[in-house]
Amino acid sequence: MKKLLSLLMAAMLLLSLAACGGQETDAGSIVIWHDKEDAVAEVLQNYLSEALPEYTITLEKKTSLTDSLKLVGNDPAGAPDMFIFAHDKIGLFAEMGILAPIEELLSEGELENYLPMTTEAATYKGTVYQLPLYFETLLFMYNSKYMTPEMVPETTEELYAYMEANTGRDRFGFVEQHSTAYYSAAWIHGFGGEIISADGTPFPDAQAVKDALEYHLKFVQLMPGETEYSTVNTLFLEGKADSTIGGPWMVPSAREAGIELGIAPMPVVDATGEPLAPYSGVQGVHVLTHAAESKGEAVRAVLEALTAPEVGVELALASGCAPARAECYDDEAVANDELVQSMRTTAEIAIPMPNLPEMDVMWTVMSNLLTDVNLSGRGVDESFDEAMAEAENLIANMK
Amino acid sequence: MKKRTKSVLVSYLVSGPSLLLIALIVVFPIAYTFFISLTNMSVYHWFDFTVIGLDNYWRALFVFDSGFLSALLATVLWTAVNMLIQLAAAFLLASALNIKKLRLRKLYKTLLMFPWAMPGYVSILLWKTGVFNSEFGLLNQWMEALGREAVRWLSTDVSAFICCTVVNLWLALPFMIMIMDGALQSIDSSYFESAILDGAGWLKRTRYITIPSIKPIIAPAVIITVFTTFKQFDVVYLLTQQMGARTGSNFHTILTYAYENAFVTNNYGYSSAISIIIFALMLVFSIRFRLGGEGET
Fold first, then answer.
1. Residues A35-50: tens digit of each pLDDT
2. Hey, which of A130, A156, A223, B212 would disulfide with A284, CB 3.0 to 4.6 Å?
3. Under CATH, which architecture does the A27-136+280-352 domain have?
């Protein structure tokens, strides 16, 4: 009896779940998920509503966008039609099969108008999966009230000397999120190392990574123990830190806080002669497979609207991001914007984040390695060997 | 006989809706997780996954290495310490709330319930930045006022364990206090009156009247809390292990350990196998716990 009833119930459950699946789609409405600052979202929302009045386009902010996509990416009822995110998850989502190739949805040759770095970042296994909008990289920023332009360090040793002279109680010469993978990558690249190679090998040049970690340690000792975004950000904005390495997203709040903000090229590592080379992230629009199939027309219209150079110019002026479309730089206001220009210069040395699915676990591996070396005070060699084993294990377990 | 079948049918019919709800939110996810654990669902086989049998379980055993064992021990210690302090503190506070002639009783009760009303995520991060942060936190402001060096409270295993316990107590006490308060109020006051006439002091009254009377009432609450404490994730993860905001401590509960060693791989088949094994572990604990509990009462 009990068994029969539970079977019946299970059947009912399945039926009700199946009923949820068959939702109708409205071909005229497009939902775009994003996790961007309000300034960026506002520009895009206003522009799209004005440019395409015949469609209902909604930008929805999602804080854990990638996790949500993993759950509902293949379900038209729960998934958005498009999403705006950095290019580093392209491999993951492309392998999952939820991303539509973008080139077929654009007019021919459209992508040739973009900076080559941005389209390369958007390509995974020979297919382009993202329409780039803008890119960002970390910048060396300083508070010119304390660090005057002539005091700005050109090399890492000069930076260290400055830190030694200007760090004390409640005051720091330089702060950065020293134990976060995204930030530490700049130091690793400065020593010629990589977190993951293009073919998916973790730490291809072990010695370079070890050298970078070892050298970086003396800088860490002159920085606060807490390294999350809010602490570093607040120290700089309250004038307690003279300089920092941070993203363009810090600029509006720094200006609001009355910081006399200066931006300088990345310091050069004395030992290698190479500058600290941060990762760059290309932010752009991705189309989900189901939307490309069922709402092709609306998706094409939105993509076409977003290729207009005005979008890039407006974004650059509103939030200081560097447009991905080359002709945006012909605009006078953009050409004169110090922030945008320095980002473009830094982009020449910056390395696009790897977009391989394996990178997804390397963030965790790298973060553990940095925590061990910088915060728990464990030896570099021992920690590195552990991290290497963890990387190989996690990558093997992805399959 | 026919009558009996009818009454059984009616009772199923009446409890049907709630059984359905339980099936939907409890049984279905577990059954589905078990199904996924038998497949090769991963980034590379998102839609086209196939059943591969028990392979994932074989691989999952490698996660249960020495790191997992020490996390398991830490979790048991964590549960024991939290439960002990929680029960003692809740009992004392609830007793204090029940003192006769206590003024502003309602105000105290509201204040004590406050942590419960706040979303856990928010309160944990408030504790992290507001109290434990080495630059701006309250504790280090005090250290500075006392002329001491700033301390990184969350950086070592032991201090992180203590900080996590404090935050967990702050979050969990309201529930326990409420249950204890209700239990205390349900005791017939005539017991105490005759005990006082017999000359029993507070300690004796507590030992022979209060504790035996509230035991059956608080037992379910204690069991529930043991499990929520055992499978604690948010407090430990958000305070010390959050990506981009790690603090240097290596204190893991089994769930944070499993998260870092399996769930980040996006291999759902493999991660589900680990979830099912942890689920089985908890099931074993719960059966043992229930038998013990029933034997006592």
1. 988 888 899 999 999 9
2. A130
3. 3-Layer(aba) Sandwich (3.40)
Q: Given this model, what pLDDT does residue A21 score? A: 45
Provide the residue ranges of all domains of chain A, joining segments of one domain with +.
Answer: 27-136+280-352, 138-279+355-398
Q: Which residues of chain A have pLDDT under 50?
A: 1, 17, 19-24
What is the number of structural domains in chain B? 1
Closest residue in A to B152 (Cα) is A225
B87-107 pLDDT tens trace: 999 999 998 888 878 788 888
Quick check: B239 and B166 in contact, CB under 8 A? no
In angstroms, the CA A31 to CA A285 distance is 12
Nearest to A6 by CA among B80, B276, B98, B15: B15
Fold adopted by A138-279+355-398? D-Maltodextrin-Binding Protein; domain 2 (3.40.190)
Equal fold, A27-136+280-352 vs A138-279+355-398: yes
Quote the minimal CA–CA distance from A397 to chain B in Å.
Answer: 7
Q: C-alpha distances in angstroms, B254 versus A356, B76, B121, B170?
A: 29, 10, 20, 22
Query: Which residue type is seen at A244?
Result: T
- Tokens representing B247 are 């603090």
- Residue B271 located in a structural domain: no
Dist. CA A358–CA A383, nearest whole Å:
20
CA of residue B265 relative to chain centroid, distance: 26
In a domain, B34, yes or no: no
Q: How many CB atoms lie within 10 A of CB A324?
A: 27
Number of residues written out for chain B = 297
Q: What is the pLDDT of residues B24-46, one digit of tens each?
A: 888 899 999 999 999 988 888 88
Pairing outcome for strands A131-137 and A279-287? antiparallel
Q: How many CB pairs under 8 A join A and B?
A: 101
- Asked, for residue B84, whether it belongs to a domain, the answer is yes
Most A CBs within 10 Å: which of B27, B266, B272, B274, as the mutation test of the A interface? B266
Domain range for B235 is 64-261
Residue of A nearest to B25 (CA): A13
Distance, CA of B257 to CA of B233 (rounded, Å):
10
Domain of B88, CATH number, reads 1.10.3720.10
B160 lies in some domain: yes
Q: Testing the interface with B: which of A138, A397, A398, A399 to mutate, by most B Cβ within 10 A?
A: A397
Confidence at residue B296, expressed as pLDDT on a 0 to 100 scale: 42
Q: Which of B28, B129, B134 has its CB closest to that of A224? A: B134
Radius of gyration for chain A, computed over Cα atoms and rounded to the nearest angstrom? 23
Residues of chain B by 3-state class (helix, strand, coil), percent to 5: 75, 0, 25
- What pTM did the predictor assign? 0.80
**In chain B, which among 135-154 make CB contacts under 8 A with chain A?**
135-136, 152
Q: Which residue of A has its CA nearest to B22?
A: A9
Is B148 exposed, middle or buried (CB count within 10 Å of its CB: 0-12, 13-18, 19+)? exposed
How much is the mean pLDDT over chain B? 85
What confidence score (pLDDT) does residue A268 get? 93
Please judge whether A398 and B245 are an interchain contact, meaning their C-beta atoms are less than 8 angstroms apart. no
